[in-house]
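G., the chain you wanted modeled:
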Amino acid sequence: MRNRYLTTSMMGLIWCLCSVLHAADVTMLAIQGRNMTAEQAAAVEKQIKDNPQDVNARAKLLGYYFAKQFTDAAVRKAKQENILWLIENEPQAKILATPFGQMDAILDGESYTRGKQAWEKQLKAQPNNLTLLDHAAKYFLLHDRERAKQLLEKAQKIDAENPEWARELGQLYSLDMQGSSSLKAKKATAAKALEQLEIAYRLSTDVAKDALLSNLAQSALVAGDTEKAKQYAKQMLNQVGSDWNSGNKVHYANITLGKIALADGNIEAANQFLIKAGKTKGSPQLNSFGPDFSLAKALLEKEQKKVVLEYLDLCGNFWVLGKDRLAQWSKAINDNQIPKTLR
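Predicted structure as tokens:
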């Protein structure tokens, strides 16, 4: 169960990444909080009792509670109370735009519902407040996704030239795409994601455009627009440099091109793209959450065992956190099995 909730938090972490970067100062406070001792956390809790309006102290505490909430009911309750206080009293606090300021409907139960009600009350009082629309959409993302869409669409109408609304809507539709059970539904949500991501791309600066390319390529591919997917993939490869995102571009561009090759029946080309994807230098995201295995799985189903094993070996160069998992998968493949987690 703990792993399930950690996975949910990771999804929120990825989706909120750009907002986290915009709220860098408060995020650093939360990260500092994660490193506090129990005694230090108790001192900060006392500080808040003496001065409830100390939002920075609450941010540090939410960082401290973030990982511990999964195993300690008292910590989880304290986290819930702090988030509820912020929604009710300081809804524009930047920490509420980050994963540290969210609650989960399953893990937090009634407190999540209370938070939802508190957000609706704030939105009723200030229906056109862009910061509140953004923070509430992030809160509703995983368990009230249609409400999150409504809030983002409203923000987009009010602030049409801001690429963040289209980017967030694109990411939200991308989550829908990944969760769709039927091919038709997946294709439809991918088309919506592509539409919003292209709006975000058009409105963004060069650096922000660069970060959108992998999602654009993936959405185009699932939507069935092979030419656009190929265009975005090649654009990624043409822009590879020494920045933090270059490892992502190498990886996802080659995964995209490999899927296109495989769909065209060119297994040899798909194999080559898979190896190129594995030769990425890595990135903060790939190093933490691991590589894309969708092309590897498809090739394994085509009995391309040797190339998939080579790919897993290459992934171990940057996905150090996943070395045990990679070893397990390699063993299963050598035993002529398709690892269940790759299915």
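DSSP finds 20 helices and no strands in the chain.

Shout if anything looks off.
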